[in-house]
């Protein structure tokens, strides 16, 4: 079982980002398998759509958000073994050339340890701030994946789609991971799972402990993903999964460890990303929390 942890990025932990290097080194030394960032370009004061596409509120813990690319770059520079993932970047918000450049840089610094995870997001205000059409975000994601593939695998590189246009340009700097870094995609709905089945190298589901842990739902989603992958002519076994585990405030480390073990046993998922931002407010506390969890669950 592989256990990874979110870098100090959100909520009160964001105010300790000067300790990112210390956190990353400590997690690797303790036996963590991976380090992760999420993405929040802004948290609207009066959102049209609420957190996760539900209601009309966003948790105040997401108001403070540090830059995911900078944090991963710092982590890449001070570690040598752990994987470095994004769970998830709201990828359609970014111009493909700039996104490819940032991720290529991180992958090269880390020696090919990048696991880029993408999602389409749920916040209309984030798309408004980027000057993009929220209603076409799914189609933009499809084109973005094509554009990234072109930039990462060809030189000169170009891409022309309905929403994204990348002029032919010199593209000699490639990621260390060949032929390109894998595409991990967040998905819950059948439509999104279909995109994972067709395009993804990995699937990024999530739970919150203890408020939202639907193990039967995870099993059902994985079965649907496998079915859709077979229909698309792909081997379902080639599609990896990393489960994000958000820890609700007031939840014991013992309960988190027990939930992770149960999910692993029932679903076959063997890689977990733990985010303690709701429960632990300091970087020092987050390091100790991670060490305790690794002792209870075991090191990957």
From TrEMBL:
Q: Name one Pfam family in it.
A: Bac_luciferase
The alphabetical list of record keywords is:
Flavoprotein, FMN, Monooxygenase, Oxidoreductase
Which residues are in the Luciferase-like domain?
1-246
Which positions, given as ranges, span the membrane?
Answer: none
Flavoprotein as a keyword of this entry, yes or no, is yes
PANTHER family for the chain: ALKANESULFONATE MONOOXYGENASE (PTHR42847), ALKANESULFONATE MONOOXYGENASE-RELATED (PTHR42847:SF4)
Q: What is the lineage of its organism?
A: Bacteria, Bacillati, Actinomycetota, Actinomycetes, Kitasatosporales
List, in alphabetical order, the GO biological process terms annotated in this UniProt record.
Answer: alkanesulfonate catabolic process
InterPro entries, alphabetized = Lucif-like_OxRdtase_Rv2161c (IPR019921), Luciferase-like_dom (IPR011251), Luciferase-like_sf (IPR036661), SsuD_RutA_monooxygenase (IPR050172)
Q: Which GO terms describe its molecular function?
A: alkanesulfonate monooxygenase activity
Q: What is this protein called?
A: LLM class F420-dependent oxidoreductase
């Amino acid at each position: 079982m592989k256990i990874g942890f979110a870098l100090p990025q959100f909520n009160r932990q964001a105010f300790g980002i000067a300790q990112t290097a210390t956190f990353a080194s400590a997690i690797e030394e303790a036996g963590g398998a991976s380090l992760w960032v999420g993405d929040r370009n802004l948290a609207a004061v009066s959102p049209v759509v609420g957190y996760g596409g539900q209601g009309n509120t966003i948790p105040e813990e997401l108001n403070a958000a540090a830059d995911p690319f900078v944090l991963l770059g710092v982590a890449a520079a001070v570690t040598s073994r752990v994987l470095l993932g994004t769970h998830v970047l709201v990828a359609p918000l970014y111009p493909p050339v700039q996104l490819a450049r940032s991720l290529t840089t991180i992958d090269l610094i880390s020696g090919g340890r990048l696991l880029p995870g993408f999602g389409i997001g749920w916040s209309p205000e984030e798309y408004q701030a980027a000057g993009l059409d929220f209603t076409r975000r799914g189609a933009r994601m499809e084109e973005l994946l094509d554009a990234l593939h072109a930039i990462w695998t060809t030189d000169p590189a170009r891409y022309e789609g309905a929403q994204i246009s990348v002029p032919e340009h010199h593209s000699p700097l490639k990621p260390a991971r060949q032929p390109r870094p894998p595409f991990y995609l967040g998905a819950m709905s059948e439509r999104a799972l279909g995109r994972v089945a067709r395009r993804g190298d990995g699937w990024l589901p999530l739970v919150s402990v203890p408020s939202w842990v639907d193990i039967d739902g995870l099993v059902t989603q994985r079965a649907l993903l496998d079915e859709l992958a077979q229909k698309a002519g792909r081997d379902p076994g080639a599609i990896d999964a990393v489960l994000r585990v958000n820890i609700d405030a007031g939840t014991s480390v013992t309960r988190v460890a027990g939930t992770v073990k149960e999910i692993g046993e029932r679903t076959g998922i063997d890689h977990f990303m733990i985010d303690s931002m709701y429960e632990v407010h300091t970087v020092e506390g987050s390091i100790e929390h991670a060490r305790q969890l690794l002792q209870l669950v075991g090191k990957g």
